[in-house]
Predict the structure.
Amino acid sequence: MIEISLQKKLKSSSGDMILDVKLNIAKEKLVTLYGKSGAGKTSFLKIIAGLLNPDSGYIKVDNSIWLDTDKNLNLRPQKRNIGFVFQEYALFPNMTVKENLIFAMAKDQNKKIIQELIDIVDLGNLQNRKPNTLSGGQKQRVALARALVQKPQILMLDEPLSALDQEMRNKLQQYILEVHKEYKLTTILISHDISEIIKMSDYLIEIDHGKIIDQGLPMEIFTNNKVNAKFQFTGEVINMVKQDFIFIITVLIGKDLVKVVADDNEAKRIKIGDKVLIASKAFNPIIHKID
Amino acid sequence: MIDWNPLILTFKLAFITTVLLLIISIPLSYWLAFAKSKMKPVIETFVSMPLVLPPTVLGFYMLIAFSPSNAFGNWLDEWLGLRLVFSFEGLVLASVIYSLPFMVHPLQSGFANLSPILKDASYVLGKSKMTTLFKVLLPNLKPSLLTGIVLAFAHTIGEFGVVLMIGGNISGKTKVASIAIYDEVESLNYDVANTYSLILFAITFVILLLVYLVNGGYLKRFL
């Protein structure tokens, strides 16, 4: 169990803002922070990591207190047992993939973990390469593996997949879920991608302007509890064409384009670029084995 | 045959100065790049002063300060046995101050241009500031380090005003190449002056060329 209570005045592009968050996170859950850029999500993660000092606050992880401004207690980032995956990877350019992982080891740690992680994220044939020769997806796999070397109590991922294409995203999402389960991690993820959030997270926290405005199961929050379907996808509206009395709406789900019919009333509330949920309740979907 | 002493002295001075500058400038430029202290602009100004100040001004004040007839110079002389005027030690100190900006500036901008998340990433992995500095930051600053080392070295070779003010012209002790050239010209020995000048010209040209070759990546396939 992680108890967090933080206050900090932040300067954002739209003026000053107070980050004020109180939150409990259950062990071994994957929790996603969701919200507009500049809402304070990254600052929140940095404060938990000890990279940014709050004005006041309290952080307790399991039974150890990391931060208690009332008692003037503030553990250095070095003393907090966390793994952090940055959006920009933050790999050390002077070290090879393997050296990046070895550098991350604690003083008296068994070297076995390095090979184990290299195998989990499939870096075997890249381990002697320098980071600047790797693709974005490969870099992020190294960053993920590096963050796990010391078996952290909390794994934090700051928009780790936003720079990757859809296919790479799907793969990386699998890797993250796999290590999250394998190492029994408590994971905090920042993401903007609704389908990614629904696919990955146990719990969703929506932050706006420094405050939590909604929290709960991702599906319930995104659908406002309106749908109770057994069969649904989320996607993005790519195109809308009016044909006679109906609209044909093209939706991008994953990497597939799907056309959906909507009536005037439904179409009025939707515009190109919107995230939408496509669900079907009344009929039985057909199932086909693919391979 | 020319007297090789001034040249040897010049390179000895440049070498010692560069090593000392490296030791001083790494912490100093780290602090200048990352600290948010109110003192920073003042320190930055002091570091940069030798760039604009006539070398003679610097040399003059050092001459006054370190003269044994002054309280401070006297104290240095009696308690530490350090006589800084007209001595090689004095030349080293003057050169360190005079070439300081040439080492600090490249390092400072190198530190400032490194992505700040490299430091964050290392701290989160439990690494101390020292480990982070030596294993992560400095290895990624090689071009800046090389530029700083070479500029400081070359600049010390080219020094004249400060050296003449505080060191004088003592053969074998403080008579460096630049002063020897001046000396020879005054005595109308143009041939000797020309030899010294050519040697300095060639060496500094080669040193600077090497830096641009290395930093421009032209030597990648040989290194």
